[in-house]
Structure to design on (257 residues):
């Protein structure tokens, strides 16, 4: 790590020491060090699957799409089950223990923030959670394992036990409406943040990607930590091109110094 990066890390640690309401915003890049590929990096999920196949409208309209969607999500489910949280997830837990963490707002569906030790009320999931399944008709929620067992026993497209409605992983597909409560809550928390750190997100999926803008509008100090450029880099007070786990661990080390 060069001196410039160390200086930036030190400055972020200083912000955290001097403030209380830290909001961490995470994207798929926070979990690549745990072995879950992101969407847009080379070798990422969209190099192997065509996102146009999985539009929400197509899921509603076609049994064939639903079958493909469940196959695609079965692969994701097992990747997620195997994954363990990395230093970036652990850093969020440490911030919470220090009494600094207002919340984590995540676009991830992998449950790794909770697996690292954050309670559900500290994590706002903008795009849902792949460990749950929901009925699109009556809203009944299922544990993913229960539905996965049914799929493995030959039910290619599972239906709701209660109303025979369509079941879908409780995640947000392209073209599917965002969860209102979580989106509203994330906007409020972003506007009220004192320090806002966006980690491992390409910041291109809206409305999630607008959270750093709300934070800046509310007067927060903004840091962006990502391997590649984002459309909001110009807005950041501190920009670090680096690995989420490595950088977040260093930030915690500096705070503890
Ligand atoms: P994205 O794939 O668009 O962007 C990920 C970004 O992270 C890229 O800009 C990449 O350069 C960066 N990155 C990769 N590894 C990194 C690392 N170790 N450290 C720092 N940066 C790293 O993902 P996104 O912005 O989250 O948005 C796309 C959608 O992807 C979201 O809706 C999310 O639900 C979904 N997604 C989630 C998971 C997951 O739950 N783990 C995995 C894949 C996709």
């Amino acid at each position: 790590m060069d001196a410039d990066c160390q200086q930036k890390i030190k400055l972020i640690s200083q912000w955290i020491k001097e403030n209380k309401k830290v909001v961490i915003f995470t994207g798929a890049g926070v979990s690549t060090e745990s072995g879950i590929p992101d969407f847009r990096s080379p070798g990422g999920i969209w190099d192997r699957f065509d996102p146009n196949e999985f539009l929400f409208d197509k899921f509603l309209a076609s049994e064939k799409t639903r079958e493909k969607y469940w196959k695609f999500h079965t692969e994701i489910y097992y990747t997620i089950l195997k994954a363990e949280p990395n230093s970036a997830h652990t850093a969020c837990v440490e911030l919470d223990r220090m009494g600094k963490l207002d919340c984590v707002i995540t676009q991830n569906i992998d449950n790794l923030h909770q697996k690292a030790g954050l309670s559900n009320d500290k994590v706002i999931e903008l795009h849902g959670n792949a460990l749950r399944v929901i009925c699109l008709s009556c809203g009944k929620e299922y544990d993913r394992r229960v539905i996965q067992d049914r799929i493995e026993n030959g039910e290619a497209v599972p239906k709701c036990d209660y109303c025979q409605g369509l079941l879908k992983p409780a995640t947000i597909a392209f073209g599917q409406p965002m969860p209102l409560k979580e989106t509203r809550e994330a906007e409020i928390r972003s506007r009220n943040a004192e320090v806002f750190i966006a980690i491992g997100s390409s910041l291109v999926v809206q409305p999630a990607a607008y959270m750093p803008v709300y934070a800046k509008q509310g007067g927060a100090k903004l840091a962006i930590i990502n391997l590649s450029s984002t459309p909001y880099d110009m807005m950041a007070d501190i920009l670090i091109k680096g690995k989420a786990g490595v950088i977040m661990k260093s930030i915690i080390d500096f705070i503890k110094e």
Remarks:
- The first strand starts at residue 22 and ends at 26.
- The domain at 1-35+85-127+179-257 is CATH 3.40.50.1220 (Rossmann fold).
- The chain has a mean pLDDT of 95.
